[in-house]
Amino acid sequence: MSSEAKTLYDKIWDAHVVQEADDGTCLLYIDRHLVHEVTSPQAFEGLRMTGRKVHAPERTIAVPDHNVPTTLDRASGIIENEDSRIQLNALDVNAREFGVHYYPVNDVRQGIVHIVGPEQGWTLPGMTVVCGDSHTATHGAFGSLAHGIGTSEVEHVLATQTLIQKKSKNMKVEITGQLRPGVTAKDITLSVIGKTGTAGGTGYVIEYCGEAIRALSMEGRMTVCNMAIEGGARAGLIAPDETTFAYVNGRPHAPKGAQWEAALTWWRTLFSDDDAHWDKVVTIKGEDIAPVVTWGTSPEDVLAITDVVPAPESFTGGKIEAAKRALEYMGLTAGQKLSDITIDTVFIGSCTNGRIEDLRAAAAILKGKKIKDGMRAMVVPGSGLVRAQAEEEGLADIFIEAGFEWRLAGCSMCLAMNPDQLAPGERCAATSNRNFEGRQGKGGRTHLMSPAMAAAAAVTGKLTDVRDMM
Amino acid sequence: MEKFEKLSGIAAPMALVNIDTDMIIPKQFLKTIKRSGLGVNLFDEMRYNDDGSEKPDFVLNKPAYRDAQVLVAGDNFGCGSSREHAPWALADFGIKVVISTSFADIFFNNCFKNGMLPIVMPQEVVDVLMSDAEKGANARMEIDLEKQTVTTSDGEVFNFEVDSFRKHCLLEGLDDIGLTLEKAAAIDTFEASAAQSRPWV
Ligand code: SF4
Q1: Tens digit of pLDDT for each residue in A251-295?
Q2: Which of A140, B10, B176, B191 has its CA 20 to 30 A from that of B158?
Q3: Which residues in chain A touch residue B176, judged by CB atoms under 8 angstroms apart?
Q4: What angle is formed at CA A463 by the lines to CA B76 and CA A470, rounded to 5 degrees?
Q5: CA proximity to A197, closest of B107, B110, B79
């Protein structure tokens, strides 16, 4: 290893250090700050109480997403839940008072913050991007250093446009070769977590690389990076390439003309040098990845759809107890075939899988089919623009004809802060990112999977190997 | 921010691994626009029945642990959502120290911003502290940040590591934002040079 060799993470980090203390604590400059209604009210209130301003409102983008109803009647402006209404109002007041960029509920560009940022060209390669939300890792798909922060840090960034940070270690996750038919970006990211565990990335920034990653679209790359946090990593990164530049080019806030050329010149230097040092390396063969689902209440509880529910005794340490608890919560027995598990609800959406490519993949399975009788199924597009495009491409009609509800954009049943919730014991095939106890509603049971797998489950009423329907 | 120097208090054992922030404070309590008052809903779904009555088996509902100030927990504590409501709820309940073999990154950060101390210890030590915590209300654990020690009720002493900058801020009760604003000139300089080198940002 030559001393000059750097990883992509090293390069972005170095370009953003304002000051470094002797103990390695750095003041890191933040290029983009995304804000939503749940984790920001206390931060804005803090500014008010101390008489501070937003340091760089032009770098700050606010959009409501977690609480917003996604039913069609929301256009009437009525939000029944009083607490939600207070939080949405607070964002509205704060965004206007502090003069930040803002996409209100009724703007067609509104949507999940991690979908809106890239869509509008706010997220660009080589940037530092933060948001008071753990899935900020999504933006790493552009080769930007992006991670979630708490509310105190939201206030810190609002007031100073910087964060106090120590550098993480470098981890490489390489997916070699090619994916088999029916296997998607979601299967990659779940399989990685299944292999490394939810704490496997703690203390690291992951760079995903390898042929199978290179072959992914930007949508797929966002899905992969989105769940870096579920693997415990501070951030996930993918080096920018022609796919990235093609996606960014022409977006409303992307550079234009001479600036575009200048940006490209720098962006093309953003890759890990061949002899860069890695603190940890994980390699998975693309050919070995199957369509997967989760069986438990941790995103690391991942198995191929052809597998059976594991026995708690097959684990070690504290995981034995956790697996027992998970099976009881999920209402499953060891040895049961995953493909025999019947479901009540299907949720397609979230910042993991609420983009146009995800809707296309699900619609391709659903075309000309109906969902199982009695099934509740909904599609919640990640943004108003995704929704509009899906309507233009005829995808909305496919969903509606199959029996899905076609909703407005928001986080919806990913975390069930709005009225979209599971009832106790209700079992859901979900394209979101967390299967924690109660995540989609108290007592609700969540199985995570790809959009195509969720669509297949909607048709058969059970967890289903999508390859049987292709 | 409140200072943290020393604490002598009851420690509650929660051996479960991967305790996530959804468990610590479920989303229905995130609709607040305040930082305070979340303690009653700490671990809500594990702590209360549907009718609002307490589940007597849950550790913090047991008489011995109702005033716990320390939590000894399983691996990967605080994983999941970035919600700072999790440390707010713990602190509001009265818990100022969490000890585990590992913590999720964002939760770990969030603790320090709220005058709380997360302590990472190796598995052998967590095992000893877990047994100590299981002794209930008569066993008080002592945490000394200056000396970086945890002392069990039997007088056994364990050292822990803590980042020097974070230790300083906790001991002095320093506000990060105030500290950073003192560096405004350096931030201005950085912005001016970035405007030259990366004008498109
Ligand atoms: S879609 Fe789900 S994971 Fe993504 S930001 Fe919204 S609540 Fe968080």
Answers
A1: 999 999 999 999 999 999 999 999 999 999 999 999 999 999 999
A2: B176
A3: 152, 156, 164
A4: 120
A5: B79
pLDDT tens track for B4-40: 999 999 999 999 999 999 999 999 899 899 889 999 9
How many other β-carbons are positioned within 10 Å of the β-carbon of residue A297? 26
| Residue B1 counted as domain residue | no
Whether A412 is in the pocket of ligand 1, judged by its Cβ within 6 Å, is no
Measure A340 CA to ligand 1 centroid, in angstroms.
Answer: 29
Per-domain boundaries in chain A: 8-167, 169-241+272-288, 293-468
Ligand 1 pocket check for A63: Cβ under 6 Å: no
A465 C-beta closer than 6 A to ligand 1: no
Same fold, A8-167 and A293-468: yes
Amino acid code (one letter) for A297: T
Which A positions 42-71 lie with beta carbon below 8 A of chain B?
A: 42, 45-46, 50, 52, 55, 66-67
Distances (CA, A) of A274 to A3, A8, A243, A333: 12, 11, 21, 47
What burial letters (b/e) apply to A275-292, b meaning 16+ CB within 10 Å?
A: ebebeeebebebeebbbb
CB A351 within 8 A of CB A112: yes
- Report how far Cα A203 is from the mean position of its chain's Cα atoms: 19
Instruction: Measure the CA–CA gap between B25 and B86, rounded to whole angstroms.
Output: 6
Output the six-digit token pair for A244.
């990235």
Provide the domain limits for residue B25: 6-197
Measured between CA atoms, how close is B107 to chain A, in angstroms? 8
Task: State the average pLDDT over residues A81-110.
Answer: 94
The CATH homologous superfamily for domain A169-241+272-288 is Aconitase, Domain 2 (3.40.1060.10)
Angstrom CA distances, A336 to A50, A251, A328, A332, A459, stand at 58, 48, 13, 7, 21
